[in-house]
Amino acid sequence: MLNERKKRILQAIIDEYINSAEPVSSGSIAKKYGLNFSSATIRNEMAELETAGYLDKPHTSSGRVPSDKGYRFYVNELLKDDNLSLEEIKYIQSKLEMKVNNIEELTKITTNTLSEITHYTTVAVGPNPNVQTIEEIKFILLGTRMLMAVILTDSGLVKETIIKFDDDINQEQVDTLSYMFNNKLKGKPLEAIDQPFEEYLFREMKYSVKVIRPIIEQMKKLINDEKDFYLEGTNKVFDLPEFKSLELAKKFINLIDEKDIMLDLLDTGFAQDINIYIGDENDNDQLKDFSIVTFKHRIGNKDVGTIGIIGPKRMNYSKVISVMKYINRKLNDNQTNEENFEQPEEPKEES
Amino acid sequence: MLNERKKRILQAIIDEYINSAEPVSSGSIAKKYGLNFSSATIRNEMAELETAGYLDKPHTSSGRVPSDKGYRFYVNELLKDDNLSLEEIKYIQSKLEMKVNNIEELTKITTNTLSEITHYTTVAVGPNPNVQTIEEIKFILLGTRMLMAVILTDSGLVKETIIKFDDDINQEQVDTLSYMFNNKLKGKPLEAIDQPFEEYLFREMKYSVKVIRPIIEQMKKLINDEKDFYLEGTNKVFDLPEFKSLELAKKFINLIDEKDIMLDLLDTGFAQDINIYIGDENDNDQLKDFSIVTFKHRIGNKDVGTIGIIGPKRMNYSKVISVMKYINRKLNDNQTNEENFEQPEEPKEES
DNA sequence: TTTAGCACTCGAAGGTGTTAACTGCTAAAC
DNA sequence: GTTTAGCAGTTAACACCTTCGAGTGCTAAA
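Structure tokens for the assembled complex are given below, as produced in the milestone run.
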């Protein structure tokens, strides 16, 4: 649809705009980008690119700015691989090779690394609770009225919570609970800890509602809690020229403080590995001035979370995507080679 | 030292400045604060208050602004009780009466409540690890190469961590570990999990360094981790007029992102219940434009954490202090009446 | 001792002119 | 037919004023 020259010009404009954050003039790219045409020729092409919808103009006598359509074309057709520098690679390696004891820690480190390298705000969520199944459930008595419940999932996640009771419970009760939970729920999805299961326990066990109710309640809370939500580099936006207006910065900070929106934004379903949403492509209206790039972090084919970058539309897409790809590969390498995160195989019961 | 009239004028100026954030003129307080003197008289007094160091002037023809010394005098001598509104009291009650299962949750809720009521940024830390003693330690085998360690402290805190091993460990080993830890450490401060203890384990147990090293390492990490650090209302500062300059807002956001500084700031030693640091009184130079108000949250005489508010020097001190006092009392009431947080008495060992 | 009155200071706001960086268009050159 | 030099037109940004209002400090009278 666009001839070669238009593509080159469009690419030059967007590259330039990503760098400078200022409307791009015909003259500047004629010089810098080694296009062997005069600025006048480029001006003509730019005018056509504008009518075709790839470019916008803040005002009559100003340079051009990419439109959402322009960015989309750029991302789909013009993106070139950004080769990471040796330092960047080393930095990522050193971060990801740190010994971690659980997935949460890994996600935290990854989120931080991504933010440090790209200088954008990074958000992450753990695996969707309703794709995980229960590997094992443990109950540990802490004192006479306090219990700790630990759930191991097939994603390798360990979730634990504390439950308090108004009455004493004893080890025998805990053992029975442990048997009932594991017998009934092993291999089931996390959501299997629900109302019907609670009713089942009421029927099958002699314990009062006073014991079972808080357990189920607290475990449901544990599962649906958004506590595995990570945010890094909030303050990075202050360095971007588009946020020199306090109004916008405030909006942005408030936006990423809204967990619901952020969770929604990372809930990319079963889409492919890297997803890009540019401006208006975002479902949420408040996000229309931003671009989001997300990727799913998997072990085998198990979803262990989604990590996303949220930044201005003139985001350095090629850098962001390169880093994401590299990190994704590294994560997979680490897991398969070092078996850091294999699932606990055949956990033994205490006799 | 200051006569009654000067005190009244100083109070009026500071009250007004806390409200308006703008230099206060002689005329405005003559009118608003029912002082039966003309603006000229007040001007004379203001000039004297300025030479005495209680007031500053941004420029020759502007109104007056309180100095650090002025604020200090205000806080020490002029502060009146701010009676909380019924709505505020109800709001606090509803928040604090929520059933919580651990101290972390309570701290989180308290921090959030404090921020919502005062509209300032609130920070909190859990109890200082070196004032807590070990009540009990539990080890739970999760699979063959993964262990969960749970530490109960006398503050009622439950800290847990996951430890991974390169080789298998078995239940017998875990039982021995459990015996060794509890036998040696019960009643000791958290810091007793240290190098000498690690060496003691090496000597006394037949297990390889491969088992003991990661356990000690991870538990030390758990204890010294600043993970019980809470921050609420970061974005609230954007509503304050002093942060209309992006530069300052950026500074503030970066400042409270530095955990070290924040932890330092909350580390008020064994000082009295409510501490106020105004401007230059803060040790850290970066805090010289802010005021910090902290209070220690105790159960009995056990420190369970410190909560602080960080805001502009023209903070609404009387409101902040009233809310803190009220919350502090409420927390104590809840604990003593409902025995929500009594320590686990005489925990039973599984046989 | 208090206060009215006044000269003085200063920042904020708004208006004006200039400049520089663009564009679009036209007509000539290739 | 395509490209380009050249030029008029547009606009934001900036520096520079002026004006205005809200203050103060001081003096002299009450």
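The longest helix of chain A spans residues 317-338. Residues 23, 25-27, 40, 43-44, 46-47, 57, 59-63 of chain A lie near DNA strand C (CB under 10 Å from a C1'). Further analysis is deferred to the final report.
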